[in-house]
Amino acid sequence: MPASASNEMPAADLPPRTEKLAASIRQLCKEYRLSSGSVVALRDVSFDVPEGDFVSIMGPSGSGKSTLLNLLGCLDRPTSGGYFLGTDDVARMSDDQLADVRANRLGFVFQSFNLLPALSVLENIELPLHYSGQLSRTSRQRCERLAQRVGLGDRMDHRPMQLSGGQQQRVAIARSLVNDPRFLLADEPTGNLDTSTTAEILDLLTELNNEGRTILLVTHEPEVADLTRRTVVLRDGGLIYDGPPTGARAALQATAVRATASEVHR
Ligand SMILES: Nc1ncnc2c1ncn2[C@@H]1O[C@H](COP(=O)(O)OP(=O)(O)OP(=O)(O)O)[C@@H](O)[C@H]1O
């Protein structure tokens, strides 16, 4: 989308609150326009993420979780509504400003790790710095410390193929920290891992959260959500629950019952 498109955005209804928020999402809507019609993927979603929060996003397939994460990660623009990172109105930023936000203020962790197979652990961690032309002896030392931080100090020369899934995800987490972002976005970070490796990765994310980083992750697994501080549940693009993870189960069950009932009536 051209940078000028952001100027056509309807203004958000409310200014951000003055308390320290990592992010504030206000009446966010996303509509995908297709030649055959349009799909409303998010409708009027609003919630705040205080600095240091650890939020899980849940909901059935197609409920809008990836769409929301893409918007929060500045990978896409909302159709309407507001998204503030701190007090900055992201929805009104130019494409260059968004790229800067993605590179320096946000960290991304993906289900499929997204490592380059030909590069070593250390080179994978350094990759964002390589792209932004910031490689230096100091940055290499920082990346070595990050490899050690995620328990891979003795594997820095290994290729991803030589690592377990959990170790690959550790590399990806180290890479996400390379510019020291305060806000991490994770899309099903344990979706490809077994139970014990899932626990290790969640321990690592919890440590990062305890250091003060804000974390927002998408998950289908209630056991993963239980380790976060708060769960947001989406259904049909709308927010239907925002509260402790334990309460999210009832909201999800109601969603499942509703889906089953609509199957029966079909
Ligand atoms: N690029 C797109 N173009 C058109 N429709 C889209 C696009 N991306 C997503 N959608 C639609 O938007 C809705 C929400 O999709 P989204 O991928 O955000 O859901 P989700 O909750 O992440 O699903 P899942 O758990 O299966 O990954 C769905 O109806 C989907 O088909």
From TrEMBL:
It comes from the Bacteria. InterPro entries: AAA+_ATPase, ABC_transporter-like_ATP-bd, ABC_transporter-like_CS, ABC_transpr_LolD-like, MacB-like_ATP-bd, P-loop_NTPase. Keywords: ATP-binding, Hydrolase, Nucleotide-binding, Transport. CDD domains: ABC_MJ0796_LolCDE_FtsE (cd03255). It is an enzyme of class 3 (hydrolase). Belongs to the ABC transporter superfamily. Macrolide exporter (TC 3.A.1.122) family. It comes from Botrimarina hoheduenensis. The keyword Amino-acid biosynthesis does not apply. PROSITE patterns: ABC_TRANSPORTER_1 (PS00211), ABC_TRANSPORTER_2 (PS50893). Residues 23-261 form the ABC transporter domain. This is ABC transporter ATP-binding protein. The keyword Nucleotide-binding applies. Its EC number is 3.6.3.-. GO terms for cellular component: membrane protein complex; plasma membrane. GO terms for molecular function: ATP binding; ATP hydrolysis activity; transmembrane transporter activity.
